[in-house]
Amino acid sequence: MSETEKKGSPWPWILVPVAAFTLFFVLRECQHRLPPATNTTAPASTVPAFPDTPAPAAEGAAAAAPDTPAPQ
Predict the structure, then answer these.
(1) What are the DSSP E strand ranges found in 15-54?
(2) Which of 28, 5, 25 is nearest to 17 (CA)?
């Protein structure tokens, strides 16, 4: 009365762990490591002296309209 159990292929049980470990170590070796910062005293960005004065426009950039509020 009982049905015989079908046995599957053993290849997925072998290939999946091998592929997982291979992918893990390949990706582990490919990661980029950032070099340590050598210049810790970077110059500050240009900030206007008063909030009402507009910041100097970058070269080639169009100047903003004077009635446009500054982004907060």
Answers:
(1) none
(2) 25
What pLDDT does 36 receive? 76
Two tokens, residue 60 = 């080639």
Pairwise CA distance, residues 53 & 72, whole Å: 14
Cα end-to-end distance, the chain, whole Å: 77
Residue 54 near residue 48 (C-beta atoms within 8 A) = yes
Whether the full predicted model's pTM is greater than 0.90, yes or no, is no
> What is the rounded distance in angstroms from the CA atom of residue 68 to the CA atom of residue 23?
53
Q: Are 50 and 31 in contact (CB under 8 A)?
A: no
pLDDT mean values, one per 10 residues, the chain (72 residues): 78 95 90 72 63 63 60 72
Report yes or no: 42 and 32 within 8 Å, Cβ to Cβ.
no
